[in-house]
Write a structure and sequence with these properties.
The protein is of the alpha+beta class. The chain folds into two domains: about 5-80; about 110-340, Bira Bifunctional Protein, Domain 2 (BirA Bifunctional Protein, domain 2, 2-Layer Sandwich). About 35% of the residues lie in helices and about 20% in strands. The protein has eleven helices and nine strands. It has helices at about 5-20, 25-35, 40-45, 50-80, 110-120, 135-140, 180-190, 230-245, 295-300, 320-325, 340-345; strands spanning about 125, 135, 170-175, 195-200, 215-225, 250-255, 260-270, 285-295, 310-320. The strands form two sheets. Strands 1-4-5-9-8-7-6 form a seven-stranded mixed β-sheet, with helices on both faces. The chain has a two-stranded antiparallel sheet with strand order 2-3. Strand 6 and strand 7 (about 260-270) form a beta hairpin. Helix 5 (about 110-120) crosses helix 10. Bound molecules: phenylalanine (PHE). Phenylalanine binds near residues 177, 260, 314, 315 and 316. Phenylalanine binds next to strand 8 and strand 9.
Length: about 350
């Protein structure tokens, strides 16, 4: 083998040595090059056949190569064992706690609305939606609320246009309850009708701990032959147990709404004290959650449904109030603020 053969061998060794990153790599390299079967040993095998001068020169060159390789080998071994243990400084530490992605979540009003929809869904009520922009006809008159009725007075209702001296029959407004949806459903379907209508409603109330100018209701409507007040009581009692717990009692108090007759306001036994009386129920043991009644025959007539043949019940619940009760929220304004209750815990 020529001088350059040895140089080539040296280059080959240097490459292999540079690639050896662990003690095990070094050991393998050692066997391959320096060991008894190694490449250097094999170099010396042909020496005996050479003329003395050449033999001397070749032997010297091989020896030098052997010394250089051994020295490089040992240096590499020392460098490897001196290298810091553990991951390289730029390695990713997989044992560090991860960063939790901040996912958004459904607003508590909307998850309550979904729960209400599910409860009434199981009782056979289909979920439909009505327009938020209404007219005086649907919001009031078709519901048997004369426009001079206190509820129709402007201080309660956001009107979207100015009175025009009677040129247009009806003014546009933001619905002040979900009840106008009753009329839309009755106009577009034939009984049996069994729907719930969740959604936003608007009133000119200033915001305080229990009022917001925009809040939520869920309307219920059931119209068929032979629907009675007993059906209304049954449905709402069952729904209240599903919503607030199996021990919940439901109480009906006579009340008045122009679009239902008879009408009632419904209380549930206080969730906090179970009915014995506490600050949340102002000592009464009951909390009011909705208004309801049998659909007024005049409302059925407005919808061209024959009141001699059909009867129905309707109810309207305040969703925000129910969410407050279920979640223990004491101020309705928290729902529209960056309150920690909703940012952190939800
Ligand atoms: N719309 C009534 C309110 O907002 C509630 C209600 C709905 C009452 C249906 C009776 C029947 O106060």
């Amino acid at each position: 083998m020529s001088e350059s053969g040895l140089e080539q061998l040296r280059a080959e060794f240097d490459g292999a040595l540079a690639a050896a990153g662990t003690a095990a790599d070094l050991e393998r390299l050692s066997a391959l090059w320096i060991g008894r079967e190694g490449k250097l040993r094999r170099l010396t095998e042909g020496l005996g056949a050479l003329p003395p001068e050449e033999k001397k020169a070749r032997g010297k060159a091989i020896n030098e190569l052997k010394l250089a390789i051994t020295a490089a080998f040992e240096a590499r071994g020392r460098a490897l064992s001196a290298a810091p243990r553990g991951p390289a400084p730029d390695a990713i530490d997989v044992t560090l706690p991860g960063e939790r992605p901040r996912l958004g979540r459904r607003h508590p009003i909307y998850s309550t609305m979904e729960e209400l929809r599910d409860v009434f869904g199981r009782l056979g009520f289909e979920c439909v939606y009505g327009p938020e922009i209404e007219t005086t006809y649907y919001n009031f008159e078709a519901l048997n609320i004369p426009l001079d009725h206190p509820a129709a007075e402007p201080f309660d209702t956001w009107y979207l246009d100015e009175p025009d001296g009677g040129k247009r029959p009806h003014r546009a407004l933001l619905r002040s309850h979900t009840s106008p949806a009753q009329m839309h459903v009755m106009e577009s379907r034939v009984p049996p009708i069994r729907v719930v209508v969740p959604g936003k409603v608007f009133r000119t109330d200033p915001a305080d701990a229990s009022h917001l100018p925009v809040f939520h209701q869920i309307e219920g409507l059931y119209v068929d032959e032979g629907v009675t007040f007993a059906d209304l009581k049954g449905v709402l009692s069952i729904a209240n147990k599903a919503l607030f717990g199996a021990k919940t009692e439901t109480r009906f108090r006579p009340s008045y709404f122009p679009f239902t007759e008879p009408s009632a306001e419904v209380d549930v036994s206080c969730l906090l004290c179970g009915g014995t009386g506490c600050p949340a129920c102002k000592g009464s043991g009951w909390i009011e959650i909705l208004g309801c009644g049998m659909v007024h025959p005049r409302v059925l007539e407005f919808a061209k449904i024959d009141p001699a043949r059909y009867s129905g019940f309707a109810f309207g619940m305040g969703v925000d109030r129910i969410a407050m009760l279920k979640l223990g929220v004491t101020d309705i304004r928290h729902f529209v603020r960056s309150h920690p209750l909703f940012l952190g815990q939800w």
